[in-house]
Amino acid sequence: MYGKAFAPEYQGELGSALGVNSSYEEVLATASRAHAEADSALERARAALAVAEANRRLGRVTEAGDAWRESYRSARAADDAGARAWALWSGGTLARQCGSLPLARRLLAHAVTLAEAGGDRLAHGYALAGLAETGRIQGDYAAVAALHEELLAQAQKHGEARHTVWAMSGIAQMHRNTGGYAKALELFEESARIAADAEDHRGRAWSLRGVADVLSVQGETERALTLLSEAEAICRTMDLASALAYNHKMRGNVLYRAGRYESARETYTLALREFRAMQEPRGVALSRLGLAKSRARLGRDRDETLAELSVLEGDFRRIGLHHARDMVIAFRAELTARPEQGTPAPRSGATTLRSPAVPATS
After folding, report:
1. Among 197, 201, 253, 255, which has the minimal tally of Cβ within 10 Å of its Cβ?
2. Which of 154, 99, 148 is nearest to 361 (CA)?
3. Domain boundaries defined on the chain
4. Which Gene3D superfamilies would you find in this protein's record (predicted)?
């Protein structure tokens, strides 16, 4: 049903030189050479796009920002709407990674328009997927659930494994966040299988992270940690700095749910350091929340914890992370409803609030 995974963001001659599993240091070196040797504006646009994506994945946000803008300028000089759409997709994805969600939506919406005008089906699909993921990250499931389903159907129709894995794991994440653990596990496991068959190592790493998350909620701590170790190895091989940091944050979650608060605190601290190094405010805020909860379980003064939760609630509101803000509110309610000493650990999975489930996949 699916072919081998490919990376449409590597275009022109780069498409034959690089693959979906190329390490991002390799991508950066190859694309930088191609940009220096480019003979046309379109070639420069394509090379700069790959430079931008490599830097973004490596957590080098300033360099990524410079590169996607260079790609856009060159694409405009080449009068190529599709290339402009790809550059804006890269810029919108970077904006989302940096926590600038309104900017991400504007850039991605413009990318959708340009891709449609230029007849670039893949750029159109990736830009729509970017909009869907932005809404999902914010917790606006009602607005983007149908779009995720539509994108999954399109990916399956065209046999595009990489996009199928993305859409399926996104739908799984929404089910997981609304309490549909059985469906989430089914979808995460299926996306991991598709990624493995298509040799999409990055997609498999993200899917394994999702499987581990749900297994942890269900009390299968050691299985979850084993899967996260497998995913971590993939992240290190491919130089996936952001994915590695999110893997570490998830390991912190798993340890926290298991009541291993010292280890959770150490792991959240590691993730926090990684996110700060790559200037990723969403990851920073989520790691700080995990760290605050771990410290509270280890006996930190309750007033200090409540003060930090207030700061975090403001950060989540500013970034637009509605689901994460709800988690702050829930933990604050739990702290204030109990005596300062002897606050028990939450039940497995209790850190996630439930809301109406999203539609099941077809």
Report:
1. 197
2. 148
3. 1-138
4. Tetratricopeptide repeat domain
The angle at the Cα of 353, spanning 350 to 354, to the nearest 5 degrees, equals 115
Q: Identify the residue whose tokens are 């599993």.
A: 21
Whole-angstrom Cα distance, residue 263 to residue 294? 9
List C-alpha distances in Å: 124 to 17, 85, 160, 251, 280: 24, 8, 14, 34, 26
Spell 142-175 as b/e; 16+ CB within 10 A means b.
Answer: eebbebbbebbebbbeeebbbbbbbbbbbbbbbb
What's the token pair of residue 25?
Answer: 């240091």
Element (H, E) at 226: helix 221-237
CATH number assigned to the domain covering 1-138? 1.25.40.10
Torsion angle (degrees, nearest 10) of CA 187, 188, 192, 195: 70
CB 152 within 8 A of CB 167: yes
DSSP letter, residue 24: H
Q: pLDDT by residue (tens digit) across 59-107?
A: 899 999 999 999 999 999 999 999 999 999 999 999 998 889 999 999 9
**Interatomic CA distance for residues 324 and 312, integer angstroms:** 9
pLDDT class of 333 with cuts at 50, 70, 90: very high
pLDDT at 86: 97
- Condensed to tens digits (0 to 9), the pLDDT of residues 148-199 reads 998 999 889 988 888 899 999 999 999 998 999 999 999 999 999 999 999 9
pTM higher than the cut 0.90 = no
